[in-house]
Amino acid sequence: MKTYRRLSVQLALMLAALCAAGVTQGQTPGAPAEPAAAPVTAPSLPANSIVVTGKRFDPTDRTATFAARSKVLSRNRGSSCNYMSRFSPDMDDVTLNYMQDVDNAGLSSNLEILRENSPGGDASTDRAHLSSSRMDTAGRGSSERRAAGGCKAADLRFAAGRAHIARKDKTLDDAFASFDSKDYPKALEQFKISYEKMGYDGAGMMVGRMYLYGIGTEPDTAQAVYWLKKVAEDRFDPVTDRLKFYPRSPEFTTPRAEATMNLARIYLVGWGTDKKPAEARKWLEKAVEIGFVPAHVTLGLACLNGYGGSKDAPKALRLFKEAAEQGYRPAQFHLAQLYYHGDTGVPKDLKTAGAWFVTAGKAGDARALYAVGRMYDLGEGIPVDQPRAIVYYKEAAVYKNPSAENALATYFYSGEIVGKDLAIARKWFNLAALHGQADAMFNLGAMCARGEGGEKDMANAYVWLVRAKEAGHENAAAALKLVEPQLSTEDRSKADLALKPKAARQS
Question: I need a surface site. Which of 96, 149, 431, 449 has the fewest CB within 10 A?
Fold first, then answer.
């Protein structure tokens, strides 16, 4: 069985057995690190190519953000239409625009055009209204006809009236103006008025958030849930209301999606209420249904760990893959991890894992870059190629991945491939240690104790070995027993000041 790359950094006082044990990189591929924002260019694995599909939409298009404020007349603005009816090509935006042009050109069509000033139709211009084919078996005229999607004449009049009011309505704009000027109590009341008057999702979502965070009022999770559910459970058309995904702006959302995710978070962390894993998972499911791609990862991890329901690795795989293929970088990384480790119902597949790690790495995921480097370093699914591994380690280290920083330091310490340079090795160990890498803490402590790559510093050596022990390094306790007796009074004072600054100052 292959192990992680090892480095023999020895303390002068360390027992021979401890020296033989060496230092391991105890991080799994993809150890937590802050994802990098900028894309990088790196060599690719000799594996099957992964093609990321999906349109890139313009993130400046705000039509999806406040869809309820649309001034376009639509059957979705009716009061009793068949909102969940099957998709009809006649209702597609492209078709509507095209047919509008056709009508303007004087050509006839079966498309029903709804006008604000004449929702029942304009007999002077609409030849179809005069046709006997528009009469039903009861002999009723066009004023009683059914519109597209199952809307009745009353629905058309309702939609026209609402559009007329919406054109002049300023309640939501006024509420945001009050919010921006920090008059939060007034903004809260205005958002409520806006929602009750026009039903704007944005207004209801803001009321829910203000109750949740205690903005302009005392925090009230029960009220927050009440208002967030108003938005999240509102009628939903899977064709027109589904959220678009922008790979360059993955967190772009709508009031409905934001309300849904807030409900999931409330039950996930127990925000003002008890934790309810099953309820959190339910809202994550809904967020996925409405098209919020980042929810795929959260729900996928819940399925993978059996949180809030049964463990379901194949479903997690499907969720990760759906989001990964749309260009969502975290999903690409988690998909690669799942293929790398395998799970119940998901066979281990190192080649596919490597291909997805490369894809995520090219998108700027430092954890994925480190994982690819490690696969080359150890020859997992591919031939060993340490020069290429160093390329990936360096890319990941530039983005402050602690495990990559530690791995890069081991090469400079041992002199493999890059040439031995203890000063650079100590620098990289120091960076990795500052970023919380346990092996780097231990290695840095060893180098400080021996004076390698810089001055001998027993106080600093003791500090880093203590922190390595606290981080769970298996050899740190034995090393401390050897180093501690060698501390001078001054060394101990410096170490105490670093480890317990408040207590040291008070004494």
Answer: 96
**In whole angstroms, how far apart are CA 501 and each of 279, 335, 463, 489?**
44, 43, 12, 16
CA atoms 319, 323, 325, 328: torsion sign? negative
Cα 304 versus chain centre, distance: 17
What are the start-end ranges of the H helices in 254-349? 255-269, 277-289, 294-305, 313-325, 329-341
Rg (CA), the chain: 31
Cβ neighbours of residue 256 under 8 Å, at least 6 residues apart? 201, 205, 231, 232, 234, 236, 241, 243, 290
pLDDT digits (tens, 9 = 90+) for 341-392: 999 999 999 999 999 999 999 999 999 999 999 999 999 999 999 999 999 9
User: Minimal CA–CA distance to 353: which of 42, 25, 50, 40?
Assistant: 50
Alpha carbons 429 and 468: distance in angstroms, whole number = 12
The β-bridge partners of 118 are: 115
Question: 232-280: per-residue pLDDT in tens?
Answer: 998 887 777 888 898 889 888 999 999 999 999 999 999 999 999 999 9
Contact of 323 with 317, CB cutoff 8 Å: no
282 CB-near residues (< 8 Å, 6+ apart) = 308
Question: For residue 29, how far is the Cα from the chain centroid?
Answer: 19
pLDDT at residue 387, as a whole number: 96
Q: Which long-range contacts (CB under 8 A, 24 or more apart) does 342-351 make?
A: 343/304, 343/313, 343/316, 344/311, 344/313, 345/312, 345/313, 345/314, 346/313, 346/314, 346/316, 346/317, 350/375, 350/380, 350/381, 350/382, 351/45, 351/47, 351/48, 351/381, 351/382
Structure tokens belonging to residue 59: 């993130």
Q: What is the DSSP string of 367-394?
A: HHHHHHHHHHHHTSSS---HHHHHHHHH
Find out whether 463 and 499 touch, Cβ atoms under 8 Å.
Answer: yes
Residues with Cβ within 8 Å of 196's Cβ and at least 6 positions away in sequence, in order, are none
Contact 207, 191 (CB under 8 A): yes
Angle between helices 366-378 and 402-414 (to 10 degrees): 40
User: How far apart, in whole angstroms, are the C-alpha atoms of residue 393 and residue 372?
Assistant: 8
- Output the pTM of the full model: 0.71
Which residues lie below 8 Å from residue 208, measured CB to CB, with a gap of 6+?
Answer: 223, 224, 225, 226, 227, 228, 230, 231, 259, 262
Structure token pair of residue 174: 């006024």
- Numbers of helices and strands, H then E, in the chain: 22, 2
| CA separation for the pair 37, 352 (Å, rounded) | 24
Reported as half-sphere exposure (CB side, CA atoms, 13 A), residue 430 has a value of 13
